Each structure stands twice: as structure tokens, then as C-alpha cells.
Amino acid sequence: MRVVIAGAGAVGTFLADDLAASGHEVVLVEKNVGGIESPPTGGSVQLVSADACEVDVLQQIRLEEADVVVATTGDDEDNLVISLLAKQEFAVPRVIARVNHPKNHWLFNETWGVDISVSTPHLLSALVEEAVSVGALVRLLQFEGGNARLVEVTLVPESPAAGRSIVEVGLPREATVVAVVRDGHVVVPRGDTVLGAGDEVLMLVTGDSDDEVRRLLVVP
């Protein structure tokens, strides 16, 4: 897989080294190479000194051949410009963008070419909520501008789904159980998988199915 990462800060550099160590072809673009605190250690990482917001730069690094573009600069405006160019000008299949300021999160959607946005404050908030919220539907991640979400609920004994198989629960077509965490182990869900109290149920939901999923899994 060919991955182009814009921004060689701590996040971009770590990501570049990690992906390169897994055997991926990685191009790391940074306009201020002299200011990099921790240069990539992976010898297979191609470090390019340039501005990833410039179309000619993206042409030179053959962005159209990238499978994934990750915009990880410390500037939300730059990340949006890079995402838009990657998607509209170079038709990159997957564009992931970092959100630096939580108030800008609403901008990071398909209109700006972003397939997946990552906001550290929002992610931390979701993880904290997931850790302390038992019996509540918690949103962990969102995709496609929020139209698709990864949600989690830890079932309590009184849950309408406890003791019933996934098929019997009757989830809407817009909701799919992707994993069940039980006693610290991941259970690959099947239609006949019986849910129980204490199970952490992870689901991919789309559209407006949250309320229906909540009705079926959460105690009123």
C-alpha cells in the first residue's frame, strides 16, 4: 500500500515509521524539514521537503498513485486543502484528516474530501464515556461526514437484548454488529450469537438508526 502523509510532526513521523515497519511504501511531506524534532527512523520512508498544499508538489510525488492520504499537519486549514486536492484532483481512494481544533470538526466531511476525520479531544471524550457508561449507547468514531458511526453499548442484565441471539434482537438493516467483547475476548458475531449481560457490543450504524438501536439494546 502506498501512503502519503502530510505533516512531519510527532503524529505524522510516528505514523510514517509504523506503516513503513509494516512493509508499506510511505512518502512523508513536510515544508519545514529543518524544524522536525524527531525525523523518521525508518530507512524506507521517503521524506520530501515541500508544501503539500501545492498542486505541483502533489504531482511530483505522484499522489494519484497513493492508496491513502493522511493530512496530519498542525493547521486545520492546511489539512482541509490537502484533503480536497487529494480527493478531487487526484482521486485518492481514502483520505484521512486530523482535526486540531474541536470547533472545526464539522468542516471535515465529504464536501472537503475527507473520508475519515480524527479529532483527539472527541476521541478521548468518547473513550472516557465508553469506560464509565454502562448500558448507554456511546459513539466512538464517525465516517462519511457522520452518516456512518461506530457505536458501543455494554449490556446490563435488564437490557432487552440480554439472553437473545442477534437475529432475535431484530436490529434494523442500517445497523450491523461488528464485534462482541466478552470477558476480555473478542467474539466474532454470527446471527445465532447470544448476547449477555456485560457484553460490549460494537456496531456500525448508518442513517438515522441510532434511536432504533438504542430502543433494542438499552434499558428505557
Task: Give a brief rundown of this model.
With 220 residues, the chain is an alpha/beta fold. The protein is built from 6 helices and 11 strands.
What does this structure look like?
The protein contains six helices and eleven strands. The longest helix has 14 residues, at 76-89. The protein has two domains: 2-118, Rossmann fold; 133-217, Regulator of K+ conductance, C-terminal domain (Alpha-Beta Plaits). It has 220 residues and is α/β, with parallel strands linked by helices. The strands form two sheets. The protein has a six-stranded parallel β-sheet with strand order 3-2-1-4-5-6, sandwiched between helices.
Number of strands: 11
**Poorly predicted ranges:** none
Q: Please, what is the average pLDDT? A: 88
Order of helices and strands: EHEEHEHEEHEEHEEEH
Reported for the largest beta sheet, the result is: 6 strands, parallel
CATH topology name of the largest domain: Rossmann fold
Given helix and strand content, the structural type is: alpha/beta
Overall spatial form: elongated
> What is the CATH class of the largest domain?
Alpha Beta
Number of domains: 2
Q: Bin the helical content.
A: 25-40%
How far apart are the first and last residues' alpha carbons, in Å?
46 Å
Total count of helical runs of at least 4 residues = 6
CATH architecture of the largest domain: 3-Layer(aba) Sandwich
Instruction: Spell out the CATH superfamily of the largest domain.
Output: NAD(P)-binding Rossmann-like Domain
Strand order of the largest sheet: 3-2-1-4-5-6
What portion of the residues fall into strands of 2 or more residues? 25-35%
**Rg over alpha carbons:** 20 Å
